[in-house]
Specification:
heterotrimer; A mainly alpha; B mainly alpha; C alpha/beta; A: mainly alpha; two-stranded antiparallel ribbon; 14 helices; 3% strand; B: mainly alpha; two-stranded antiparallel sheet; 12 helices; globular
């Protein structure tokens, strides 16, 4: 009843091609963002620091990977490596230029990650599908090895660990130990909101459409005049930029200090899980998937004590892991196209409600 | 000049001057490669017959080894424990087919891949819950004395492992080529629908393949578990099998073996002769780079089926 | 229908999740809360389980035998980290404000998690006791006010190892021209000993070869082929988890003389030598606590915690190397609280007060005897500037069924290690705009 598009007429191409063509969607979107900005008022530090900040940052990484895998159809397992480039380069830039705004440092590091992504994307012209994963895995292992080995990247710290130095923004401490969780949350949220909308905008335009054409059948796309090489490389570059920015945020606004182990292959896999569970080829899906993968385990950990169940901590963990696995399988059986698809179905139902026939 | 010399001349001079050691490096590479192949084989079997990239193969290796050791700890003799483990792996294949595969028929590859990730979480939790997280020594009486032949140090255990790998591949090759079920398996691998239409029961085939992959996992688990003890980390061995798998091709049993040998020998030579130039520990990424180089020439892997694209 | 159930499930999930932050079982006001970051599952569980059991049993013992610390009961809660940094941070956030006065201190038992917590400690006012791990530079108490890593550190340990080699070979001058290899886990932790070994190599003239093993370390053929060719006189190893077990097995496989193969104190637990079976006999490792269950404290634990059931205690790792190390750590924790009570009164204390206790800890031989720990570990006296104390190490050896001590307490080289620590701490202070406090 509320969610109806009857009466919303499109009188120009511009309105017809809007990011959110339906008024209610626009209102909903604005509401969600507004609520997200108000969350620090009610959430405590545990929620912000341990749950929401990693969720937002990984959402950004998942959007990046989804652009590459979901939209352009190029499977990548190098997310952790590209994020590491972002993290280490942000560190290098901020320590080399202490007066530079840390947010600019993050963006610059993202650009460097994009360059690296470009290089490792070159084999994609020749190699496809699961086989392409090898090129990106090579990136993953090589990049981490490099940061681990070459002292220059970590300013020759003997253990090879990087620590986010304290930096301010508009006079407020945003990184380093003194930065409060709400401040860091707001910075990260702003990044996510901006880049999620940018991605949404990107995929509805010419670039996004050429990516989808390549994904659906690259030979056909080539015949209608899309250059596969440039298109795929662009996808790698933009995706790696997103991952790089996410990596910078991961070190500076979440972990505070990191070694290469923070970006290991497990991270690459978990970002991939996010987009599959959330829905390939969907920006919203990336965020929903990130929520699923980051929050469900925390919920499962905290649930048994809540309902008064107490059991040995290892047994609880084993059950939690099994439940988590079963939930993944369950969701895939219910809706193989991901959580974003469920959301879409829900919207369809809502459109007809309360008169479904 | 000096750099060029260090990279392109010195390592080869080194190989030539100390050729006995070089031989030892190559042999170690071959033996390690076979060990990688053992893990890669499990992936190949399942991918061949059902098009599923089975992420949980590594955890299946762990699960099988844990079950074996667990049964032995409860006093079962080796042969009984082996039979018991095989039965458990078969039961697992049934369960996977019933709960997962039949509900996901015709889904995209990536969805099937993801479902096996869910499976790996379940198996990991189950295995540790039932058998505990401690390191367990695995000793089923494989000899492991080192001995020297012409200055080359060999280990009975490595030879035994390589031999059992070779036997396993031989048995699988015979099984695929000369038995009724084997032919059915190849038919399914070739074309699901055509196989169905000539009356090959798809689900039975899946159960058989997953059971066989479970047994291959058991063999891999025994070999790797004897080295490090049976523990959680055993499941991470799958990462070492990935470059092998990709290099050999997802669909080829001999590919898994040849791929394993190339990766095994390649990474050992690289680590020992070129590793010091880079500061060491290069073998992990080198394996992938090596696989990548091969793929640039053959995008479907060395023995994979040719990818034919039509508009 | 499907949609409806899913929505219901989602709503239920959200409601449940939102409850998490609100409800946490209230603790009695008079109890001293000690958080425990443990890893009973995951790849490092074989090491994590004895550690967690050791902590738990010692705290239980203090409550049961002494009725708490001066009558203040200890309450403790485990949080599972799987040795994963991200989960470690989550556990930290969850537990740091628990109890009437918040967490007393954190014992992360993971180098990665320690690195995460070091910057947070001064802000949250909760001290960290990273006993023999974590950031070595934290030994400089002027820069790292909130972090303690006594009784000794990786750098001191490496110098102690060199001292041990010299003892065995008949003097430091005999080191010249010797070949020593360091096999290390390719991570922040594994690399810790490298700078010290390099500095000492320069000074004493031995040949040092550094061999990195990548995580997880199941495949080390290349490393051991290099060892076989190099034939080093001594091998030092900084390994962790599965890497240790494989290394010991491979060393036996190439017939390397095991009594010249010395692990650091995280490479010499009971789990590390079991898979290699007989091959591991003779393997040595450094440690700073005794092995075995023959001490008074063990008899007390069996009596008070397990009600006399020695078999059950054995099942819970009583007397294993890492169990004993956890006892040392738990004992330091309790003694620090006791010290702090001397100043602030016999009541439950907050993090700031416990920090004072850690910094003024003076554990004497007599006190150790009182605790039933005579000969178990060495006395420790912490000070404002020195959070490490550079305590001695001892070498233990595996005889096929148990670890036993085979050396005296070996001193470390304070004169070399301390300047390195101060330099590293100064670099950290500069990068993070910290003004070192004055300890004079």
């Amino acid at each position: 009843m509320i969610y109806r598009e009857a009466g919303q007429f499109k009188t120009s191409y511009a309105t017809d091609q809007m990011m959110f063509p339906i008024l209610q969607d626009r209102i909903f979107m604005i509401l969600v963002i507004a609520v997200a900005y108000l969350i620090p008022l009610i959430a405590n530090e545990y929620w912000l620091q341990a749950v929401l900040i990693p969720f937002l940052i990984l959402s950004l990484a998942a959007i990046g990977l989804n652009l590459l895998t979901g939209y352009a159809g190029q499977l990548s397992l190098g997310t952790g490596g590209f994020m590491a480039v972002g993290g280490y380069m942000t560190y290098k830039i901020t320590t080399a230029f202490p007066d530079l705004n840390v947010l600019i440092a993050v963006l610059l590091a993202g650009l460097l990650a994009a360059l690296v992504g470009l290089v490792f994307g070159i084999p994609s012209l020749r190699i496809k599908g699961f086989y392409l994963a090898v090129a990106t895995l090579a990136a993953q292992f090589f990049i981490l090895w490099l940061f681990n080995k070459v002292g220059w990247f970590v300013n020759y710290s003997p253990s090879g660990t990087i620590t986010a130095p304290p930096r301010t923004l508009l006079g407020i401490m945003v990184t380093g130990p003194e930065a409060t969780a709400p401040v860091r949350y707001l910075v990260v949220l702003t990044f996510l909101a901006f880049f999620a909308l940018a991605a949404k905008n990107l995929v509805r335009g010419r670039i996004g459409r050429s990516w989808m054409a390549i994904r659906d059948m690259d030979i056909a796309a080539e015949i209608i005049g899309i250059r596969p090489f440039q298109t795929k490389l662009l996808a790698f570059a933009i995706s790696s930029f997103y991952c790089g920015v996410a990596g910078g945020l991961y070190v500076f606004f979440y972990l505070g200090s990191a070694e290469t182990e923070a970006f290991d292959i497990a991270l690459s896999f978990s970002v991939l899980f996010m987009i599959i569970i959330g829905g390939l080829g969907s920006i919203l899906g990336s965020i929903l998937g990130a929520a699923f993968i980051t929050m469900v385990p925390i919920f499962l950990t905290n649930a048994p004590p809540l309902i008064g169940l107490s059991m040995p901590i290892d047994l609880q963990k084993h059950i939690e892991v099994m439940l988590f696995g079963s939930l993944i399988v369950f969701f895939l059986i219910v809706e193989p196209r991901g959580l974003a698809r469920l959301w879409q179905i829900a919207k369809e139902k809502f459109r007809l409600w309360p008169f479904p026939h | 000049m000096e750099i060029l010399n260090a990279f392109f001349v010195a390592p080869f001079v080194d190989m030539g001057s100390d050729y006995i050691f070089f031989a030892e490096v190559v042999i170690a590479g071959v033996l390690t490669g076979v060990m990688y192949s053992l893990v890669a084989l499990g992936f190949v079997l399942i991918f061949k017959a059902s098009g599923v990239f089975n992420f949980s193969q590594g955890v299946m290796v762990l699960f099988a080894a844990l079950t074996l050791v667990g049964l032995m700890e409860h006093g079962a003799p080796v042969w009984l424990a082996l039979i018991g483990t095989v039965l458990v792996m078969i039961a697992l294949a049934f369960a996977v087919e019933w709960v997962m595969l039949r509900r996901l028929v015709n889904q995209e590859e990536i969805v099937l891949f993801m479902s096996t990730i869910g499976l790996s979480f379940v198996l990991q939790g189950l295995g540790e819950m039932v058998w505990g997280s401690n390191v367990k020594a695995l000793d089923i009486g494989i000899p492991s004395e080192p001995f020297e032949v012409g200055g080359i140090l060999l280990n009975e255990f490595d030879l035994f492992a390589a031999a059992s790998g070779a036997v396993l591949v031989g048995v699988l090759a015979v099984f695929f080529h000369y038995t009724r079920i084997g032919r059915a398996l190849r038919a399914v691998a070739d074309d699901h629908q055509a196989a169905l239409s000539v009356g090959i029961p798809l689900r039975t085939i899946w159960i058989i393949v997953w059971s066989v992959a479970g047994m291959v996992g058991l063999v891999a688990g025994i070999m790797w578990g004897a080295k490090s003890g049976v523990q959680f980390s055993l499941s991470l061995i799958a990462l070492k099998a990935l470059p092998v798998l990709i290099l050999g091709g997802f669909t080829s049993v001999p590919g898994a073996i040849v791929g394993g040998l190339i990766i095994g020998v390649g990474e050992k030579i690289a680590e020992i002769y070129w590793g010091p130039l880079f500061g060491g520990a290069i073998e992990n990424w080198f394996a992938y780079v090596l696989a990548l180089v091969f793929l640039l020439f053959r995008p479907q892997g060395l023995f994979g089926e040719k990818i034919i694209e039509r508009v | 229908m499907k949609i409806k159930t899913l929505i219901l499930a989602a709503v239920g999930g959200v409601v449940g999740l939102s409850g998490v932050a609100v409800t946490s079982p209230a603790l009695a006001d008079g109890e001293q809360f000690i958080p425990m970051l443990v890893y009973r599952t995951g790849p490092y569980a074989p090491s994590g389980i004895p550690v967690a059991n050791g902590f738990r049993d010692y705290y239980k013992l203090v409550n049961a035998r002494d009725g708490g610390v001066n009558g203040v009961k200890l309450s403790f809660e485990e949080c599972e980290t799987e040795y994963n940094t991200k989960l470690g941070v989550e556990c930290y956030e969850k537990l740091k404000n628990k109890g009437a006065h918040g967490a007393s201190l954190f014992n992360p038992f993971s180098t990665g998690i320690t690195y995460q917590l070091i910057p947070k400690a001064p802000v949250d006012k909760i001290p960290i006791l990273s006993m023999g791990y974590g950031r070595t530079a934290a030994a400089d108490g002027r820069v790292f006010e909130w972090v303690f890593n006594f009784p000794t550190t990786y750098w001191s340990q490496a110098s102690g190892f060199i001292n041990y080699v010299a003892q065995q070979e008949g003097g430091l001058d005999k080191l010249k021209g010797m070949k020593i290899a360091h096999i290390y886990h390719n991570s922040a932790y594994g690399k810790e000993a490298n700078p010290t070994l390099e500095v000492l190599a320069e000074k004493y003239g031995y040949d040092l070869t550094l061999l990195a093993v990548d995580h997880p370390g199941q495949e080390q053929k290349a490393t051991w082929l290099q060892i076989r060719r190099l034939k080093p006189d001594w091998i030092f190893m900084s390994g962790w988890g599965v890497m240790n077990q494989v290394a010991v097995k491979e060393a036996a496989g190439i017939r390397y003389p095991m009594d010249h193969f010395v692990g650091n104190w995280w490479s010499g637990s009971d789990a590390d030598v079991i898979p290699a079976g007989k091959g591991a006999i003779g393997y040595k490792s450094a440690t700073f606590n005794a092995a075995g269950d023959g001490f008074q404290v063990h008899r007390d634990i069996v009596k008070y915690v397990y009600g006399g059931d020695a078999a059950e205690a054995k099942k819970n790792n009583l007397g294993e190397v890492l169990y004993n190390r956890a006892i040392v750590n738990a004992m330091f924790t309790v003694e620090a609280i006791l010290t702090a009570q001397g100043k602030f009164g016999n009541k439950a204390l907050g993090g700031e007060q416990v920090r004072w206790g850690l910094e003024n800890l003076d554990l004497t031989e007599a006190r150790l005897k009182e605790l039933g720990l005579e000969g178990f570990t060495r006395p420790v006296k912490v000070s404002c500037a020195d959070h490490e104390t550079g305590g001695p190490i001892i070498i233990q050896q595996w005889d096929g069924s148990k670890w036993s001590m085979v050396s005296d307490w070996i001193p470390t080289m304070r004169d070399i290690v301390r300047p390195m620590i101060e330099k590293a701490a100064a670099a950290y202070a500069k990068e993070n705009n910290i003004t070192p406090r004055d300890c004079a």
